[in-house]
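PT: before anyone asks, these are the final sequences, not the draft ones from last week. 961 residues across everything. Please model them as a single complex and drop the result in this thread when it's through.
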Amino acid sequence: MNMNNFHYIRKSPRRTDGELIVTGRARYTVDIDLPGMLYAKILKSPHAHARIRSINTGKAEELEGAKAVVTGRDIGNRRFSFIDTPAYPADQTPLAVDKVRFIGEGVAAVAAESEKAAEKALSLIEVDYEELPAVFDPEEAMKEGAPIIHEEITPNTTTAWEDFGIPRAKSRPYKAHHNISNRVFIEHGDIDKGFREADYVREDRFVIPSTAHAALEPHAAVADFQPTGKLDVWLSHMGFEHKRFWLAKLLGIPLSNVRIHKTYVGGAFGGKISLFAYEFLAAYLSMLTRRPVKTILTREEVFTTCPSARRMIVTLKTGVKKDGKITAQHVRIIDDVGAYRRSSPTALYLTHVFRNPIYDIPNIRHEGYGVYTNKIFTTAKRGHGLQQMIFAVESQLDMICDALELDRLEIRLKNLRKKGDVLPNGDTLRSYALPACLKTAAERIDWRRKTSHKKPNRGLGIGTASMFSGAHNFPFASAATVRLNHDGRVILYTGQTEFGIGVETVMAQIVAEVLRCPLKDIIVNAGDSEISPHDIGNWLSAGMFVSGEAVKRAAVDLKTQMLRYASEGLGIPDSDLEFENGWIISKSDDSRKCSFSDISRYGIQMAGGDPLIGKGFTKCVPEVYFWKGRYNKTASLTSGKGRFTEAYGLAAAMAEVEVDQETGKVRVIHLVVADDCGTPINIKSVEGQIVSQAVMGIGDVLFEEVRFEKGAVLNPNFLEYPIPTASDIPKIDSIIVDSYEPNGPFGAKEVGETSRAAAIAAVANAVCDAVGGRIFSLPFTTDRIKKALVAREKRKS
Amino acid sequence: MKRSMVFDVNGNKREVLVSPNQTLLDVLRNQLHLTGVKEGCGLGECGACTVLLDGDPVKSCLILAMEAEGKKILTIEGLAQGRDLHPLQKTFMEHHAFQCGFCTPAMILTAKALLDRNPEPSRREVTRLISGNLCRCTGYKDIIEAVMRAGDALRNKVNDDEHE
Ligand code: FES
Ligand code: FES
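LR: through. Structure below.
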């Protein structure tokens, strides 16, 4: 395909909905107001681990303005999670039933005429707790005799996976031995042989804390249960399917009775995929009161009751030949999941499979444990599993270089996989521009010169990353429809969701490219569960590769129909017709043409009223299926067998930093990220995602950490949990290394999360280079840097 | 005790019943329904609630509504002249200076206050002045660019006007 022949893609049109945003008219969940609306508030546990003896709601119920008060016992054991399989049944309830397991867990909820009245009502609820010994450290929690956080977990009548028709086995109760919530064990090659072949082996332990998503819009939900049994919901989602499924399942109402409306989402970053307890509670209270119910969390509540990113301890043992070729790697990960498991089974699997395409490691053992502790549970954030693992692997590669006196760029180039490689699970690297990413980034930052002529206090670092382009998660496919309107404009219906990624513009570009009509003639209806066909959502990086392909196919379907009618209507063979700028024109005689609205009219007048609707659909990995006991290559989260994805996005980052040798203060001077995302549909959007992720990565390395003391979040606000400001931003170059992905729409695959992980590793390695010593725990606070500087001086003397 | 007060918002006089401890943010969002004013923290830490008070950027979550009486309040809803967008609104679109858009109204108003005072700011000044407004999405690069370009546009406009 000639890349220069595109008309609407590989360009940077501005956001089609931009006016809404710059005029303040974009409506977010916090802005939704309905007549007669009540306000909900949740009473939170002050204890990290306690049995609930009793709850007295009498006084709260009598309060003027309080319309409903519910406790965990009223709602019962309706369990939900990110993952709900027979082996790992959901472990969380919307409100604590018998026990609280973290500080901030909900124990009761109120709906009242005003927020004030709701708060007043909460203060009147009396809870009698019996405090229990708590455990906060995952390695302590795994020991014999540690407090037991979960008694046997009884699944719902059916697990989600049974509802989807996936599993071979029936669900069973889960018993968390040693507080282990879940595990992963993936093995390829012969690990012992690999270590025997190595000339040099080292083992290191890395600690990655929780960081907050810190989306600027606080979490909120509005639910309106109608007398007809219909539930209208406005909430922040990253794909409505997951939220709709769980709301319907927990409320015991048909899936089709739940409508998730499109709202603008003030930032998500992976943190808003799963159902939140407050979303269920808004809906439940609306069902009880038959009034609309709204709940908005305060910033402190967001920090203390909504999960932040995963905390992991990564122990990494690696064997290499003298020349730096990796022969074996043994990975052990402890994922401190907190009170509930949530996405840990996915995350632990992703720690391996996301980074799998980077280096060709012939012998590998990857084991991981999710461990319950009495802290707020954790969740996905921008490629979870990836950045924790990349930080460890890339840090250690630099240490290996130091020990063997190898070049840091060469060791990476030497170990990379190659285009066309087939991974152990059968995934094929049809596009793979990671070597080019590394080389381009090295040139841009002037790696060779700067590393051979090192300036004092300066340091340089490299990071690499890769990730999926969609996976086989519910609903396992995406579909889209496009409809030709009377005026010749085209309406697209897609389940893709706008939360800052410009997805509506990008999908419109795809339709415009296929139909060769102006972008302004495409109207996008997105992210509404009632008008959108099923959609895999904008997570696990499926938006462009899977849903974009579905959109493209829908447009092609419509185009085929339009061409037939144009040919009939004009009496010209379709081989002599082409689409151009909203017209269908004869190639041999350009005076003979018809407009899109002519085609609409033809459909109605001459083709029996045909409305001209195109549909398109696709799965991420077409060969994967399950159907009534027949399975083909479905992925296993615990063994890493089966197909994962169809294409991988890749990135390399390089950073230059300066470290003040007295104060330990870091200045990031230059950050280069080269990203292989296949064809960039919207160049500025892609660059925007790269910069966004890279800047978040700077915060990850230098200062972001959700800190705890005895299970309580110590820094639940932006003063004590700073995120990068404009003043923290170095010179950033985002480079698109365009590889053509043959299975993606117009050659596109995914972009984003790789940039964050690669930037984290690059900045961390650059700091260690400048410091002349290794720091094993994120973030690299000035204290930790100063310690490393002191240690270096000691080594010298 | 609630008191009836008249606010000058976006060039209109609006009468509102206000209690002494109510924040300006609360009145603007919940009583005047100017939902372009956003609340990101309610504690003065994120800048999402920024509005202009007699041309100066203020965090509306931190000041009492009563303090705004008699002053000219500008929110994002009042920035465009009819259908004519302000140059900042245009450059924010042209330079992809927003992603989720939640910080955008406040960011644009903060930048407006800056450009009104100094239509030719340096990149460093822009960076410093918007660093009280948090944006979790964009990484700021395109925001800074958009503000610089809006400065150009405003200066050209002044020049055009002078030449007329
Ligand atoms: S809401 Fe006012 S500064 Fe955050
Ligand atoms: S665009 Fe999302 S916070 Fe700035």
